[in-house]
Amino acid sequence: MIEATGGLIGRGLSGPEELRNNGVVKNVGEAPQEELATGERSTRNRIARSVLDHGPSTVAELAGRLGLTHAAVRRHLDALVADDVVAPREQRVYGTRTRGRPAKVFALTDCGRDAFDQSYDKLAAEALHWISQSAGGGELGEAAVSAFARARLAATAEKYREQLTAVAPEQRAETLARALTADGYAATARSAPVGEQLCQHHCPVAHVAEQFPQLCEAETELFSRLLGTHVQRLATIAHGDGVCTTFIPRAETVSPQHQPKTTTASASTAGRNPA
Fold this sequence. Notes:
The protein is of the alpha+beta class. The protein has helices spanning 33-37, 40-54, 59-66, 70-82, 110-114, 121-134, 138-152, 154-165, 172-182, 206-211, 214-227, 265-268, and strands spanning 86-90, 104-108, 187-192, 195-200, 232-235, 244-249.
């Protein structure tokens, strides 16, 4: 989702100004002096940041992106796994599965993702609770939070719309991904059967969105309006998935200036992890 400052943790991660777009890092625990001298922590920061920016990654992918040997990457990943910053998992295969066992990928854990989040989660959650209660709670409170969630995206919507209007329809998902990345969402767009998938590998407000799914819903509605088509939120970080994933069908190519008058069923349940 879209804002927030905090940092990375554990033995392998360093102090301020090394992670996240604005570089603020949480410092939980101190590394041995000899580790600092050899730049171990800096390299682990780079590995963790690469996983954040590109999503779950194999040893080979990390080695290629960072210019490291496979052995060096494995050694640093072992330390990050021990610190609960990343965790191994089986790689998901899209389309026809090839022969052989899927490669192991490493993804950020909740603990590792926290390192890139701001420390204002509690304040934001309390503010939204106050908005909800001030509106009367219940359905009225939920409606008030939804109105706030949409209002906070208004300026962003106009900025994104200008960028999407300037490109061809088939380029809009990729353009939106770049715009989201510039705002700290580490987003990518990739082809999928009968459409595309917009993946956000980072959500600065994930912890708040766990309590207030209206934030995810408003964002999904925004994507639908910007792209001029029905979209479906398949997964969210706020509800335990590794990546926020939005499916964009290939069929409709309406101008991003088009504003749907009603919210699609998928958008209205976004953030509640319908998949």
